[in-house]
Amino acid sequence: MTKEINLKIDGIDVSVDDGTTILNAATKANIHIPTLCYHEDLCVAGNCRVCVVEQKGSKNLIASCAMPVSEGMEIFTNTGKVRLARKHIIELLLSEHNADCTKCYKNGNCELQMHASEMLTGEPMFIDLAHTRKYTIDKYNMAIIKDDSRCIRCQRCVRTCEELQSVSALDVAYRGNHMKISTFFEHPLFEVVCTNCGQCVNRCPTGALIERNYVDQVWDAIYDPTKHVVVQTAPAVRVALGEALGMPAGKIVTGKMVAALKRLGFDSVLDTDFTADLTIIEEGHELLSRLKRVLVDKDPTVALPMATSCSPGWIKFIEHTFPEYLPNLSTCKSPQQMFGALAKTYYAQKRNLDPKNIVSISIMPCTAKKFEANRREMRSSGYNDVDYVLTTRELGIMIRQAGLDFESLPDEHCDSIMGSSTGAAVIFGTTGGVMEAALRTAYEIVTGREVPFEGINVTPVRGTEGEVREASILINKTLPEWNFLEGVELKCVVANGLAYAKKVMQSVKDGTGNYHFIEIMACPGGCLGGGGQPIPTNREIRSKRKAAIYEEDMGMPIRKSHENPEVAEIYKDFLGTPLGHKSHELLHTHYTPRKRY
Amino acid sequence: MSEFLKRVDLIFGEYSDQKYKTLEKTVKRPTEDIIKDVLDSGLRGRGGAGFPTAMKWKFAMEQPGDEKYVICNADEGEPGTFKDREILTKVPRKVFAGMAICGKVIGAKKGYMYLRGEYRYLLPDLLKEIEEYEKTAKGLGIDFSIEIRMGSGAYICGEESALFESMEGKRGEPRNKPPYPTIAGYLSKPTVINNVETFVNVLMICRIGPVKYKKLGTLDSRGSKVFSVSGDTPKAGIYELELGMALEKFVEEFGDGDTKAVQVGGASGFCVPRKKFKDTIIGFEGVPTGGSMMIFNSSRSMYNVLHNYLDFFEEESCGQCTPCRVGCQQLRIGIEAVKRGDKPINYLEQLMKLSETMKITAKCGLGQSVANSFSSIVNNFKEEMIY
Amino acid sequence: MTANNNLIKELVNQYGRDRTSLMPILQGVVEQNNYISDVDMTEIAKELDLSAAQVFGTATFYAFLDTVPRGRFVIRVCKTITCDMHGKKLIIQTLEDMLKIKVGETTQDKKFSLLETNCLGWCHKGPSMLINHDVYSELTPEKVQKIIAEYIHK
Ligand SMILES: Cc1cc2nc3c(=O)[nH]c(=O)nc-3n(C[C@H](O)[C@H](O)[C@H](O)COP(=O)(O)O)c2cc1C
Ligand code: SF4
Ligand code: SF4
Ligand code: SF4
Ligand code: SF4
Ligand code: FES
Ligand code: FES
After folding, report:
1. Rounded to the nearest whole angstrom, what is the distance from the C-alpha of residue C95 to the centroid of ligand 7?
2. Which of A51, A358, B352, C65 has the fewest CB atoms inside 10 Å of its own CB, making it the most exposed?
3. Which residue of A lies nearest to C43 if distances are taken between CA atoms?
4. Which pLDDT tens digit goes with each residue over C72-91?
5. Domain boundary at A54, A78, A102, which?
6. A431 within domain boundaries
7. Is A202 a residue whose pLDDT tops 90?
């Protein structure tokens, strides 16, 4: 039982649980206190000091984000002393800051700018320090740009990379006036262990960490009459895009998104869900084939457990951190890259197009996908399988640029050939989704029956944040050809966020984790919490997006990947059999060990 | 020495605890008695903040569990302070004995001394003394071992929570408080951290008893204090004096006859101009000091003095919090700009307000105390800032 | 395995693999090599299961944990107020003239580095300086010349 604490904030009586911070207590009383270093997902840093408030009887102000409430406390959030202090702090930050907002990607979407505008900063109070500094801008990375001249040193990125991702590609370096956020020896991001997950980008309050954007390139392609521009959208985008356009979190906007994409001028609006279903077929067969080779053929070269491979942040992480486990990764490309490879082969054939005139765009909740699309292996069509990757945020920008009133758009449907989707594909967007989708299909292949869960909701593998979820499924009454799996308990584990991925891999390494199948998503909550999703993203928002995803799944007429009619068609017309020659060529890939330090 | 300035011989002399006799006697006493003596003595920490030592120990004592730590803060980095070095050179035994008593009181088995990197040359002798201590402790059945950890050139690591971070192998960035060290200090375990001199004072209280100890000093500032005197003085050096003296007497004794100002408490302390010598008491009721007394005569430019301090803070700030990281830089370039005439004289007012903001918003004592020297120097020597 | 790898292994064996050993290990490397190289840092990161950026971030916090190559004898002259008042400038000048380097630099023969530092706790005998661990106080240009002459022959 936690104790209730009573305090007064600006004269209002508030009762909160013991241990609550003043900031959260104020929020409860509908009093807004400005913050910069604070982020719901991260431990409290208390370093920006904009959240200071006055406590009765105390000479010094206190940082409300870092101070727990105590009985009888009297807090004032808007005294003259507080206002001047906050103004000083914002002015100090601005004096270090390259504040040419009109040249900044975060213009209009920046927490520092917002505070500055609220405080009516006019003529600078203090002497400009920014122009005496040599700030570095790291723009050599395909996914992320780091611009130190816009950094306010709040350390959100550092805490993100350490606490959520256990990567620590970024840390604080040097001291005092020279203190900065730095990679190892200030190397460019592409040379270090950064996974491009973009979680830091999503939490950076300013323009210091941003995605490399391809908005103009995509417009150019659209305007080019010689080009046929196809666009695919990932499942997690449709439960978050609304937020980037002023709608509340947790709204499913699939139909409006399709309508918007058509109005933007894409020649064909297709669906990553299609290749998500394809991934399930390929990956499901790969798992079963690995199990067979281990259990029946006793083939020692086959690696188990098998781990999912659709999260490119996770791929880069394992390449750096556990390279000895690369054989355990499924060889399946991510749905985005399967789509890309097929767009310039199968789709081109079907639509009678010259692949060289196809521009393939993907809309992703993810920054790591920008890096993935640029990997050397990702040219199996003979071209760049995916030309440009936009984040959910960038699509939001394009929709605003085009002047569309998003909320009033009618619902429209994706075009066909690679445009159909199932509930199984939709849940790819959340942690545990790939596992559930794979089980829905694999179980049915092996037993001829649906997975034995009510409404085929495989709830035991539905991952949650902040934990490693283990589950096992007993396989019985198999079809004859699969009788080697009779009585086998299929052991699965699901983790989201690289900190938890690391835990899983360590348990595999030290033998305490005994699994057949591992699902990892690099981002907290899975793709719905991806680094390319609208800002802010936090636990509460993620849980709303997650609910929307399951709602979308339940509403789909088809909820199993192997029942997607277009998937059946592509195997009949083009691919042949799962894991067949053509699949191998277009849909599977290999990985590169990278240096750990 | 004038009759007003009583030299004391408690810390360095009196009794050097040969063979750890006081320790031996003390550990046999009930814990409550020891802590009561420390409480009665009125001892306040000698590291600068002046927190009552007995209270600190009591909080840690009341924490459950037996993984607790005693840490001796030997990071002495405050400009003008060198008294801990002298103590560690002359009477390290008293320090270790004091730590062991603390270990017994709070129920800790492990003590550390965090020694600043600049004092690395003291290490061999200190290790020898620890060997001696451990032998004695074994003989007396004291289950408390002491280890030395070195700093590496960072003033901020003298701040207690930054010191823990440093010992944990991290950047020395101060933590949020609460939680305080007695609840969650080193490795997030209950920890008592005291200054070198504080531990010696405890030992001496155990030796002479609180009644005799209390006779030294004033009501608010009990006991003696080791002062490090430097600057424009013919008598630079280490002096053990009673607390609560008037600055005037101090200047009489140590000044060179032309003293214009005394910086009490180092760069983070206050600058007292001549006209205020008379009314200034050295001690917790007046101007507190960790021991640093820097004397300036009229040949010195107080602008240069302030500039030097600001340089120091700018470099030694850990850099994490806005008011301190950027504030220190702004104060320095601000006074430069006024001096050059690039900023109007009233910009000094703006800077004074900024230093006030730093005082009330900075995350730790470093940023909070920059205003002490800034406002006391700018207020008292304004012409020197301008011309 | 290089000599440095051996050094780090030894230090790790001596102090342990916990993060609390990071400072002593970094100090040990500086003691031996006068600075910590990028290769050393990655090696330490590997042994302690930290990221290389974390080791770099920690090392760069501390003035005495150099991350650029330094000479065999690192001279650190106190620049804080009392030493400054008592003629630190002249001391620096003398050192610069003798060693033919500026503050922040290292001699060609990698023997000396000249740096400034904050208060050394010898203010009553300023100006003062450290050469590696050893302190020299009450410095005058003549005294400095004598001290450095001795080091040149070391
Ligand atoms: C910037 C800063 C530097 C400090 N440096 C020291 C120091 O070098 N030695 C010290 O004993 N206390 C130092 N302190 C004070 C410590 O944080 C702490 O209060 C002290 O060690 C407690 O010991 P005491 O109660 O015995 O004084 C410093 C505080 C700050 C804010
Ligand atoms: S980061 Fe924010 S304040 Fe800075 S330039 Fe960009 S929009 Fe402006
Ligand atoms: S993109 Fe991800 S891995 Fe890279 S620095 Fe940011 S949080 Fe760390
Ligand atoms: S890069 Fe962004 S998140 Fe990181 S410290 Fe700078 S402003 Fe904060
Ligand atoms: S006040 Fe200065 S030293 Fe203290 S935490 Fe803030 S930046 Fe660091
Ligand atoms: S939000 Fe509280 S200190 Fe930054
Ligand atoms: S000022 Fe130079 S040693 Fe203190």
Report:
1. 18
2. B352
3. A597
4. 999 999 999 999 999 999 99
5. A78
6. yes
7. yes
Provide the CB-side half-sphere exposure for B315 (13 A, CA). Answer: 18
Quick one: which ligand is closest to A183's CA? 3
> Are both A51 and A157 inside the same structural domain?
no
For the domain covering C3-61, report its CATH number.
1.10.10
Q: Find the domain containing A179 and state its range.
A: 92-211
Say if the Cβ atoms of B361 and A49 lie within 8 Å.
yes
Structure token pair of residue B109: 């088995």
Which domains does chain B carry?
A: 21-214 (3.40.50.11540), 224-297 (3.10.20.600), 302-386 (1.20.1440.230)
Residue A479: per-residue pLDDT? 96
Distance CA A24, CA A69 (A): 9
Q: What is the pLDDT of residue B3?
A: 45
* Chain A residue numbers touching B362 (CB-CB < 8 A): 49
One domain for residues A284 and A173: no
Q: What's the Cα-to-Cα distance from C69 to each of C73, C108, C114, rounded to whole Å? A: 12, 12, 12
Same domain, A187 and A322: no
The count of other CB atoms within 10 Å of the CB of residue A539 is 13
Per-residue pLDDT of B204-240, as tens digits, reads 999 999 999 999 888 888 888 999 999 999 999 999 9
d(CA A230, CA A268): 5
From the CA of A370, the nearest ligand is: 3
Regarding whether A463 and A507 lie in a shared domain, the answer is yes
From the CB of C137, is ligand 7 less than 6 Å away?
no
Distance between CA atoms of residues A354 and A347, nearest Å: 10
CATH 1.10.10 positions along chain C are 3-61
Query: Is residue B17's pLDDT more than 70?
Result: no
SS (H, E, C) chain C: CCHHHHHHHHHHHHHCCCHHHHHHHHHHHHHHHCCCCHHHHHHHHHHHCCCHHHHHHHHCCCCCCCCCCCCCEEEEEECCHHHHHCCHHHHHHHHHHHHCCCCCCECCCCCEEEEEECCCCCHHHCCCEEECCEEECCCCHHHHHHHHHHHHCC
- Mean pLDDT for B328-347 is 98
For residues A287 and A169, membership in a common domain is answered with: no
CATH code at position A24: 3.10.20.740
Number of domains in chain A: 3
Same domain, A131 and A173: yes
Site from C51, C61, C62 to mutate, A interface, most A CB atoms within 10 angstroms: C51
Residues of A designated catalytic: 283, 286, 310, 330, 369, 372, 377, 527
* CA nearest ligand 3 atom 6, residue: A200
Superfamily of domain C73-152: Glutaredoxin (3.40.30.10)
What CATH number is attached to the domain comprising A122?
3.30.70.20
Contact with chain B for residue A23, Cβ under 8 A: no
Contact A229, A222 (CB under 8 A): yes
Ligand 5 contact, B317 CB (< 6 A): yes
Q: Are residues A319 and A441 in the same domain?
A: yes
Beta-strand ranges (E) seen in A107-236 are 137-138, 144-147, 171-173, 180-182, 209-211, 228-233
CATH number at residue A458: 3.40.950.10
Task: Answer yes or no: is A476 within a domain.
Answer: yes
Residue-level pLDDT at B2: 44
Contact assignment for A173 to C46 by CB distance below 8 Å: no
Distance of alpha carbon A103 from the chain centroid: 26
Residue B153 has a pLDDT of: 97
Identify which of C62, C117, C124 has the shortest CB distance to residue B236: C124
Interface of A with C (CB under 8 A): 162, 167-175, 182-185, 192-193, 596-597
Residues A468 and A502 in one domain: yes
Boundary of a domain, candidates A168, A194, A211: A211
- Bridge partners (DSSP) listed for residue B70: B111, B192
Token output for A326: 């690369």
